[in-house]
Amino acid sequence: MEVLKIVNQIKSKRSFLCVGLDVDLEKIPKFLLDKDDPIFEFNKSIIDNTHMHCIAYKLNTAFYEAYGIKGWKALEKTINYINNNYPEIFTIADAKRGDIGNTSRMYAKSFFEQLNFDSITVNPYMGRDSVEPFLEYNDKNTIILALTSNEGSKDLQLISTANDYVFMDLIKSSKTWNNSKNLMYVIGATKTEYLEEIRKIIPENFLLIPGIGAQGGNLKEVCKKTINNNIGIIINSSRGIIYSGNDENFAQAAEKEAISLKKQMEEILIDSKLI
User: Fold this and answer.
1) Full-prediction pTM beyond 0.85?
2) What letter does residue 144 receive in the DSSP assignment?
3) Which residue range is the domain that position 93 belongs to?
């Protein structure tokens, strides 16, 4: 999806919220388990009640693959439902793929051509040739894991190098890859001490930022250090929205949480003179 379309959607909805559809059958309302496809029914209700408050949906594929063929079919039905009913929404396959060139090319074909996602998350630590097959799609975005919020990020990403850290060297290198203008970057919200330096390296690219809320990230602090003239950030919230209710009114509870985040984002956009 063109960056301009994302920016226009942000300004129109006054929100840069992404809702993560990470469905765990042990956590969804019990009455849905009687449905033929409880995963899709849960997603559909969440989408119908939150699409006006968010600009993106992120589907973590592990939560669908865990249920075998039924889970994969639910993922396919969900992405088709979004594309058919809310085509302006930016869709993210949170698949964290990445392999040698021929394999990555097949992953790209699967998610971009067969499932028609707008973007995919990719683990870039096998290097350029594991990512560039995704970048061959001019109308799609590739979101690479640069600096993540998990404790283990220090085991590789935060190793010191001659001039910086491994993740900084990765970001700098990625700017030289073919079609790098279509790159976005996953940056964990809890890594605030690195955000300003990251923005100096990639001032224009969009950042996908998880970790607000449940993982302890501070929205205002993150935005202050990363927002640019095109907004340039997408904030993801998963559990805090989709599991905010556990009865027949679960979708309305999710909408309430989405509205709360949207209002905070609207204030930030107004204060930054971006709307």
Assistant:
1) yes
2) E
3) 3-271
